[in-house]
């Protein structure tokens, strides 16, 4: 639920502005990853965020129209299975910042363009506080209005980057389940404000939400060596805390990882992993940890499919 086709912003921009630059080899590589639906949201934080977000979503729509035989925009729950049956890859359009909602009515405008998920804050904005803010003042009254309108139209509220107070306020304010598309457990990474507390995870789950576990090294473990086993520890933690029905995958990486190939030291990537095959590694790890086939299906997408179905039912 945060899965990126590419972290190369230049390449992504080229695909959106000139879809013909996306080649069959690019599609085959994505298909071989084992991922059937990507939520490739980006977060604009500088300049005219409204224009940047509009350009991004318009670009995705142009890309999807040009490659309709390979991709399908996921607008409703039925399209998860439909895309798979047709052999297509699903693209779920979202944004990692809701500052493009200049007015409450903008939620409707972007929904009409295909946006189905919006993270409330990347850093702090007029809706609420971010995890990197010195002081999180919580969800503003305007933020409450945006959450209410998102609930009404059927757009999922994502609180992955929100500060602790804004996280709790958002869960309380929403009539519908809340998503944490890409974060980890602070109990396992005590120094990381970007990871969620056990209390926040409990409240999210009590509302019916799902949390996607990220594979970004700094949010997995503070240690010299960080591997897929440490990612699995976060899945185990959420499962033991609130149940397997409330955990999923939000890797926040593409098929190449985040670190430069020329850089030997690992800054963001895990040790001993080929990111193009990360879903297979996760699946094998879940089997080793004795998760049932049904529970593995839930973790690899079933939980997010269920909660999005509930959110999108207006």
Describe the structure in your own words.
The two termini are 21 Å apart. The radius of gyration is 18 Å and the shape is globular. The protein has a single domain, classed as Metal-dependent hydrolases (TIM Barrel), CATH 3.20.20. The strands form three sheets. The protein has a three-stranded parallel beta sheet with strand order 1-3-2, with helices on one face. Strands 4-5-6 form a three-stranded parallel beta sheet. Strands 7-8-9 form a three-stranded parallel beta sheet. The longest helix has 20 residues, at 293-312. Helix 1 packs across helix 3, helix 5 (105-112) runs parallel beside helix 6 (141-153) and helix 9 packs across helix 10 (278-288). It has helices at residues 9-17, 24-32, 49-66, 78-85, 105-112, 141-153, 164-173, 198-206, 228-242, 278-288, 293-312, and strands at 37-38, 71-73, 89-91, 94-95, 117-119, 156-158, 179-183, 210-213, 247-249. With 314 residues, it is mainly α.
């Amino acid at each position: 639920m945060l899965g990126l086709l590419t972290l190369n912003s230049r390449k992504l921009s080229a695909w959106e502005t000139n879809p013909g630059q996306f080649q069959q080899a690019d599609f085959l590589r994505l298909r071989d990853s084992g991922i059937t639906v990507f939520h490739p949201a980006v977060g604009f934080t500088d300049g005219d965020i409204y224009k940047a977000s509009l350009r991004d979503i318009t670009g995705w729509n142009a890309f999807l129209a040009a490659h309709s035989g390979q991709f399908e925009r996921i607008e409703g729950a039925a399209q998860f299975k439909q895309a798979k049956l047709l052999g297509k890859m699903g693209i779920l359009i979202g944004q990692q910042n809701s500052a493009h909602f200049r007015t409450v009515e903008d939620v409707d405008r972007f929904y009409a363009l295909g946006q189905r998920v919006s993270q409330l804050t990347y850093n702090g904005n007029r809706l609420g506080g971010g995890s990197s803010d010195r002081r999180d003042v919580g969800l503003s009254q305007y933020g409450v209005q945006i959450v209410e309108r998102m609930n009404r139209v059927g757009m999922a509220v994502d609180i992955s980057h929100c500060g602790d107070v804004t996280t709790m306020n958002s869960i309380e304010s929403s009539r519908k389940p809340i998503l944490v598309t890409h974060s980890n457990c602070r109990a396992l990474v005590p120094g990381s404000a970007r990871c969620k507390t056990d209390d926040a995870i409990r409240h999210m789950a009590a509302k019916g939400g799902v949390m996607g576990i990220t594979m970004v090294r700094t949010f997995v473990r503070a240690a010299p060596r960080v591997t897929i086993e440490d990612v699995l520890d976060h899945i185990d933690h959420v499962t033991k805390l609130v149940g397997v029905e409330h955990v999923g995958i939000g890797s926040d990486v593409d098929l190449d990882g985040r670190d430069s190939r020329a850089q030997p030291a690992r800054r963001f990537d895990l040790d001993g992993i080929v990111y193009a095959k990360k879903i297979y590694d996760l699946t094998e790890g879940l089997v080793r940890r004795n998760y049932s086939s049904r529970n593995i299906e839930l973790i690899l997408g079933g939980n997010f499919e269920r909660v999005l179905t509930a959110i999108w039912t207006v």
